[in-house]
């Protein structure tokens, strides 16, 4: 019975240590998820989305591109290729939202057809 109590105490201690360690690393990840430096190089992977990051504490002004593979790249916001890509992505989003066909596809893919009587 003593061994069982010791094992339980050890497991409980392990759970507490893992929980505390997890909280610390989550805070570190949250802090490191902004661009602290940017690249001027053009991205060769297929870019599917972007977001604008404004300067804030340790973060710098940047455009963060997301690639098809899920990668995130910090790019210098005023590079000509970056501005061109942002305009292209905006146009693609605008066209997708304005297209009745895409709206119909969205509606029909998320709901089942009405029953036949």
UniProtKB/TrEMBL annotation:
<feature type="domain" description="Chemokine interleukin-8-like">
    <location>
        <begin position="32"/>
        <end position="89"/>
    </location>
</feature>
<feature type="signal peptide">
    <location>
        <begin position="1"/>
        <end position="26"/>
    </location>
</feature>
<dbReference type="InterPro" id="IPR001811">
    <property type="entry name" value="Chemokine_IL8-like_dom"/>
</dbReference>
<keyword id="KW-0202">Cytokine</keyword>
<dbReference type="InterPro" id="IPR036048">
    <property type="entry name" value="Interleukin_8-like_sf"/>
</dbReference>
<dbReference type="GO" id="GO:0005615">
    <property type="term" value="C:extracellular space"/>
</dbReference>
<dbReference type="GO" id="GO:0008009">
    <property type="term" value="F:chemokine activity"/>
</dbReference>
<dbReference type="Pfam" id="PF00048">
    <property type="entry name" value="IL8"/>
</dbReference>
<dbReference type="GO" id="GO:0006955">
    <property type="term" value="P:immune response"/>
</dbReference>
<dbReference type="InterPro" id="IPR039809">
    <property type="entry name" value="Chemokine_b/g/d"/>
</dbReference>
<keyword id="KW-0732">Signal</keyword>
<protein>
    <submittedName>
        <fullName>CC chemokine type 3</fullName>
    </submittedName>
</protein>
């Amino acid at each position: 019975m003593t061994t069982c109590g010791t094992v339980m105490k050890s497991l409980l201690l392990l759970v507490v240590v893992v929980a505390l360690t997890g909280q610390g690393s989550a805070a570190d990840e949250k802090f490191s998820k902004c661009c602290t430096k940017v690249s001027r190089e053009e991205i060769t992977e297929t870019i599917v989305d972007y977001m604008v990051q404004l300067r804030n504490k340790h973060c710098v002004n940047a455009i963060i591109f997301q690639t098809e593979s899920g990668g995130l790249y910090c790019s210098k916001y005023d590079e000509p290729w970056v501005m061109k890509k942002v305009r292209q992505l905006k146009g693609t989003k605008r066209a997708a939202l304005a297209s009745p066909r895409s709206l119909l596809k969205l509606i029909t893919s998320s709901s089942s057809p009405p029953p036949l009587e």
